[in-house]
Design a protein that fits this description.
Elements lengths: L1 E3 L2 E2 L4 H4 L8 E3 L15 H13 L3 H19 L6 E3 L12 H5 L4 E7 L5 E5 L5 E3 L5 E3 L12 E5 L2 E2 L5 E2 L5 H7 L6 E5 L20 E4 L2 E4 L2
Parallel strand pairs: 4-5, 4-9, 9-12, 12-13
Antiparallel strand pairs: 1-2, 1-3, 5-6, 7-8, 10-11, 13-14
């Protein structure tokens, strides 16, 4: 697998347009050093294990992980033309990607707005113009999109993941419904702390697999 600037990358048409002659190319090993849980179809149990592992990280560890993950994503985003990116504002011990918004203003950034019917709409991801919803999650104050269509990239917060591209969310199905609206699938990148990796997660018929995983250890492409 190729690494550009310390990041696992696949050669998409967008990346081929850019010269990488000035970047180091080398082979990199596996991202993960450990996984959670035995092979299981019980997502509820895995969700609890993943949350416990994530919540056990100190504030310093969480901040360090966020910094390293953002560095990996920056190296990837720097190679792309302007993109429409669906992102998120971290809640609780979710890994934060906040630094990306200010560092990459040429991309259009969006973040979800939770609706009463367990759906998602989208607003501009401007950290200076946020409100807190009924769950205490930061959301954009302006509504600019009512569907998930039209994004080039989606950065998803994960509760758990495996290296087959399966994911565990919070359990309410917000992202499942949002991804179900897709016609032209964007690049799906799951964001998590490395301790949230699982050996195997049972896939449901409606699940949409991730294209890549970003943790503090790097960005790994799964397809």
């Amino acid at each position: 697998m190729l690494v550009i600037g310390g990041v696992h990358v696949r050669l998409t048409e967008s990346l081929i347009q850019f010269s990488v002659s000035h970047l180091e190319l080398r082979v990199r090993g596996h991202v993960s050093s450990g996984t959670l849980g035995p092979m299981s179809s019980d997502k509820s149990s895995l969700r609890k294990q993943c949350k416990a592992a994530r919540n056990a990280l100190s504030n310093i560890q969480q901040a360090d992980n966020s910094h390293a993950l953002c560095h990996a994503l920056e190296a990837y985003l720097d190679q792309l033309p302007p993109q429409r990116i669906a992102a998120y504002f971290a809640f609780g011990a979710e890994i934060s990607i906040d630094p990306l918004f200010a560092k990459h203003p040429r991309h259009q950034w969006f973040a979800p707005i939770i609706t009463p019917e367990y759906g998602m709409k989208w607003g501009t991801a401007d950290p200076s113009r946020l409100i807190h919803n009924e769950y205490g999650i930061r959301e954009p104050s302006d509504l600019v999109k009512t569907s998930t269509r039209g994004f080039d990239i989606m950065l998803l917060p994960l509760v758990g993941f495996d290296l087959a591209g399966n994911r565990i969310g919070m359990g309410a199905g917000y992202y499942d419904r949002a991804l179900g609206q897709l016609q032209d699938k964007p690049i799906l990148i799951g964001c998590a702390h490395g301790v949230q990796e699982c050996q195997s997660i049972a896939a449901e018929p409606w699940d949409v697999r991730l294209d890549a995983i970003a943790t503090e250890k790097g960005l790994i492409w799964l397809s």
